[in-house]
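Troubleshooting: if your tokenizer reports a length mismatch, compare your output against this known-good record of 361 residues.
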Amino acid sequence: MIYSREETAWLTLWCLKGMTPRRFYNLLTQAGDLSEITECPDEFKPLFEEDMFLVFKQTLETGPDELVRKLDEKQIRFVTRVSEGYPPSLENIPDPPGVLFVQGDGPIEDEKTFAIVGTRRASYDGKKAAKEFSFQLAQKGVTVVSGLARGIDTEAHLAALEAGGRTIAVLGNGLDMVYPPENAELARRIIMSGGLLISEMPPGERPSRYSFPARNRIIAGLSAGALIVEGDMASGAMITASFALEFSREVFAVPGSIYQSLSEGPNHLIRDGAGAALSPWDILEGMGWGARPAKKQKAQSLPDMYAEEKLIYEQLKIEAKSFEELAHLTGFSPAQLNSRLTTMQLRSIIIKLPGNLYRPA
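Known-good structure output:
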């Protein structure tokens, strides 16, 4: 790609080791035009720390074009705040990224973008909710934004792809690596389907405990709203929610049991005024992206069950139960109960959860 003199100046300074958004914008305030710094570096030496200035001079000797060439080799493009295509939604957040590195084609910002985030240690119900919400939002033309992390983020990206929709993954590291590594294939699918991988961190930068909160502010900034599926009060998902509220975005949360730590964050958000997301239509209606269809009354049909299976099923309708609880409530012997549970699983009447718990399918 061909970049302007000013764009390459932004790239050169942004990629300096130790550069932070605040240091970067201090340079911009002092100089006015960053290309002046790259062309007459000695005049601006007092604005740099000594070590950083030495690295800067070495970079200029190599040539800014070398940075661009290395990005092209990795099929990474960059967009600066002075470039066409920089997302307007990020312009007014505190310390906006001066440079965004992008893999994939198409715009960074769509007409309808929405974040779905949550814990890496997702429960069965949390993963199911992330899939359902992401799939239906993507079907309605909403671009799903998430962080490519394990758990809820992964399920959100996968469901958007399954729906034939577009999804954007914001990474907390350079785009020349995928973290976590098991999501490398997912990252490839996102790009191939017309989605994007985005980071403010230059290639070669590894993830750290500080890079993920910075990543979360971009997720919140890019999105018109955010859904928090699961996460405790100290989770990254709650950091994303805090940024979304700070940026005046709409925040929704999936409610859960008051006795489950993973529901702590969403429940507190709802208590403090976030929208309770009981179905994707709560988000689509709340964002003004669709009207809920009229309910169609239909009788619930269950597969034919033997009397013993019906007794087990009735016990599971209220909440999931363990093998021991079911044995106590039904009075079945362990062998009898195990036989019935196995048969019901094979017929997809019930499912087995982690912790030796059972619930209706």
